[in-house]
Amino acid sequence: MSQVAAYLAPNATDPLAPGIVERREVGPNDVRIEIQWSGICHSDIHTVRGDWGPQHYPLAVGHEIVGVVAEVGAEVTKHQVGDRVGVGCMVNSCGECENCVAGDEQFCAKGSVGTYGSIDRDGTVTQGGYSREIVVVEDFVLRVPESIPIERAAPLLCAGITTYSPLKRWGAGSGKRVGVLGLGGLGHMAVKLAKAMGAEVTVLSQSLKKQDDGLRLGADHFYATSDPATFKTLSKQFDLIINTVSAPIDVDAYLRLLAVDGALVNVGAPPEPMSLRAGSLIGGRRSFAGSQIGGIAETQEMLDFCAEHGVAADVEVIDAAQINEAWVRVLASDVRYRFVIDASTLG
Ligand code: NAP
Ligand code: ZN
C-alpha cells in the first residue's frame, strides 16, 4: 500500500478538502500512473451529493485522468514506464460476459468497477482522479496520442467518449442534422465531435450567452431554449439530438424537434424522473434512448479520432484549492467548458 495526496469529499454536503488515499501495490497486470491532470465532470458532483444513491466517504472523485506511467507489473505488455496514458470512468470488469466480450465493458453483467465510489475486487472502495497517483489494471489504461495537448486530453476520457459513442452509433455524419442540448462539458465535446464527423450541428442552450463560443467550437446554428419561438422554428428539424443536460427536461418538446425516425439520446443523468407522451414518439416513429460512456476499445478509437481531427477539450486549468469554487460554477452552468485540475497542486 502507498498513501498519496488527494482532495476528498468528507460527506455529501461539506467542501472538499486535502487528504490522502491508499493505492495498492502494483500487481502483475497493474500500471501505476502519476496523475498530471484530472477533469471535473458533473457526475463527480452528482455522486458526492448523493443524487444517485448513498456513498462511502471520504471519497476522492474524478474520472478524467491523464498522466505518465510510473511503474508497470511484471506481466504488463500494453504500457511502458514514461508512456502518456489516460483512465476514464471504469477501472475493471469481468472480461468474460457477453457485454465485456462485445466491448461494452460499461455494461458488464457482473458490474464494471467505477473509477471512484465502487467496490473493487479486493473489497476496497475505489478512489478517483483528484489524487496524485492511481493503480489500474493495464486493460483499462488508454494511450493518449502525443499530438493532443495533455491537459486538454483529460476531459476526453469521460465527456469525449460519452458523446462520441452515441454520435457514432446514431450515425452523426455528412447530411445529418444533429442538435446538442446543453453547452457544458459534454455538450461542447458533442459539438466538436459531431462537426468533425461531418454533421450539421445546432446548439440548444438555455440562453444566447454562449452563442459566440458555440459557433467558435464548430456549431452551425445556435438557439436559446428559453425562447418559445425556437421550438416553432426547429420543429421536425433534427435527425439526432444528444441531451447533455444535468437536470430534467421537457422530453416531449425536444422529441417534437425530431424528423421522422429521429432519436433523442439522453446522456444527461439527473436523479429526477422524466415523463413523455407516447404521441411524441409514435407521431414520427421517433426514439428516446440513453447511452453510457463507451467501451475501452471505443474510448481508444475516440482518442485516436481526436488526434486525427485536431479535437481536444476547451479547458480552464485550476489548482486544487479552486476545486470547490469550480463545482459552484459547474452547478451554475458557468463552466467554459471543462475544469481541469493541475494534479501537482493536490499536495
Ligand atoms: P455540465 O458541464 O454542468 O453541463 C450541463 C449543461 O446543461 C450546462 O452547461 C447547461 O448548458 C445545461 N443545463 C444545466 N442545468 C440546466 C437546467 N436546469 N435546465 C436546462 N439546461 C441546463 O455537465 P456535464 O459534465 O457536461 O454533464 C452533463 C450530464 O451528463 C450530467 O448529468 C452528468 O452526470 C451526465 N453524464 C453522463 C454520462 C453518461 O455516461 N451518460 C457521462 C458523463 C456525464 P447551457 O448553459 O448551454 O444551457
Ligand atoms: Zn464523467
Structural features, described:
The protein has 347 residues and is α/β, with parallel strands linked by helices. It folds into two domains: 2-158 and 313-345, Quinone Oxidoreductase, Chain A, domain 1 (Alpha-Beta Complex), CATH 3.90.180; 160-290, NAD(P)-binding Rossmann-like Domain (Rossmann fold). The chain has eleven helices and 17 strands. The protein has helices at 42-48, 98-101, 150-153, 159-169, 185-196, 211-217, 228-233, 251-255, 278-282, 296-309, 323-331, and strands spanning 2-8, 17-23, 30-39, 65-72, 84-87, 90-92, 113-114, 133-137, 142-143, 177-181, 200-205, 221-224, 238-243, 258-266, 287-290, 315-318, 338-342. Strands 3, 4, 5, 8, 9, 16 and 17 form a seven-stranded mixed sheet that branches. A six-stranded parallel sheet has the order 12-11-10-13-14-15, covered by helices on one side. A two-stranded antiparallel ribbon has the order 1-2. A hairpin with an 8-residue loop joins strand 1 and strand 2. Helix 4 crosses helix 5 and helix 4 crosses helix 10. The longest helix is centred in the C-terminal third of the chain and has 14 residues, at 296-309. The two termini are 18 Å apart. The mean pLDDT is 98. The site of zinc ion (ZN) has 5 residues, from loops. Zinc ion (ZN) binds at residues 41, 43, 63, 89, 158.
